[in-house]
């Protein structure tokens, strides 16, 4: 058998990974617009937020964020009532990844447009949780929780699995930079350093609980992910790394499927190996080189 050249194999793997999470040809066109359109950006290309959001560790961080967010009864009610995560999980993932890419890498105008779209969607999302409590997606408490769960997850998993972990000041810079986006989304006083992030997590902890809806999301993400069987073993490394990185109180509320329990001792090295593999693949299909730009003031 003729060996497959490393270059074409890597490019093909990169295309498959990118198209799976970003929407095929449409995702490729969006990536071209985000990275190649000239104009000032909110953040420079060497910023802490660009380093974190551009790394393959986000695959673990995204799973962790979803699991953690689902433990807030009102947040998970909004997801269950208004999200199409079961019918179109990759579409939802693509929209989330596009928002992060636009606010991190796109021009300032496109980044603000992405924020405006999300705020308009939030204004329409409202309902009643199973216990009778009303909710709205633009409730400052829920906005704060969603943001806190995301940045805690993205930063922690980057420090564990990222190619270039941040130093202490870099971690605080990441939180300060993401706080500027959160404030535009309506979050009141988002955490801007590690001390404030820890205080925010403590503030939300009493409201967290295991519910039928959180169990459903955990089962969907951990037990029956929307993937073909040949790649589920690889995905399991990412999923277990995400679950194992949660606080002990959160892990106690999120059931881990039996077939994944044996993998828990390998969570950290397995997560590192999986993210290295994703990073290797994505390097074969990199985004276009952007024009010379400068951050907005």
Automatic annotation (TrEMBL):
<dbReference type="Pfam" id="PF09995">
    <property type="entry name" value="MPAB_Lcp_cat"/>
</dbReference>
<feature type="domain" description="ER-bound oxygenase mpaB/mpaB'/Rubber oxygenase catalytic">
    <location>
        <begin position="51"/>
        <end position="280"/>
    </location>
</feature>
<dbReference type="GO" id="GO:0016491">
    <property type="term" value="F:oxidoreductase activity"/>
</dbReference>
<dbReference type="InterPro" id="IPR018713">
    <property type="entry name" value="MPAB/Lcp_cat_dom"/>
</dbReference>
<protein>
    <recommendedName>
        <fullName>ER-bound oxygenase mpaB/mpaB'/Rubber oxygenase catalytic domain-containing protein</fullName>
    </recommendedName>
</protein>
């Amino acid at each position: 058998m003729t060996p497959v050249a490393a270059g074409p194999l890597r490019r093909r793997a990169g295309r498959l990974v990118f198209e799976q999470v970003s929407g095929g040809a449409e995702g490729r066109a969006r990536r071209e617009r985000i990275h190649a359109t000239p104009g000032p950006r909110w953040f420079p290309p060497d910023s802490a937020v660009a380093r974190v959001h551009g790394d393959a560790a986000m695959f673990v961080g995204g799973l962790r964020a979803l699991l953690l967010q689902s433990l807030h009864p009102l947040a998970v009610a909004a997801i269950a009532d208004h999200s199409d995560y079961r019918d179109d999980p990759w579409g939802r993932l693509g929209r989330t990844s596009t928002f992060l890419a636009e606010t991190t890498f796109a021009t300032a105008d496109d980044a603000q447009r992405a924020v405006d779209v999300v705020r308009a969607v939030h204004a329409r999302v409202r309902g009643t949780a199973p216990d009778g409590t009303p909710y709205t997606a633009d409730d400052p408490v829920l906005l704060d929780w969603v943001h806190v769960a995301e940045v805690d997850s993205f930063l922690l998993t980057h420090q564990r699995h990222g190619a270039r972990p941040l130093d202490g000041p870099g971690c605080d810079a990441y939180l300060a930079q993401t706080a500027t986006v959160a404030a535009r989304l309506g979050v009141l006083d988002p955490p801007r350093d590690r001390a404030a992030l820890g205080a925010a997590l403590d503030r939300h902890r009493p409201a967290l609980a295991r519910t039928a809806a959180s169990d459903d999301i955990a089962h969907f993400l951990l037990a029956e992910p929307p993937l073909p069987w040949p790649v589920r073993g690889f995905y399991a490394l990412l999923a277990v790394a995400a679950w194992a990185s949660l606080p002990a109180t959160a892990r106690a509320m999120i059931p881990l499927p039996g077939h994944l329990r044996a993998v828990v001792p390998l969570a950290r090295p397995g997560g590192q190996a999986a993210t290295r593999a994703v990073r290797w693949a994505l390097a074969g299909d990199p985004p276009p080189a952007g024009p010379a730009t400068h951050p907005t003031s």
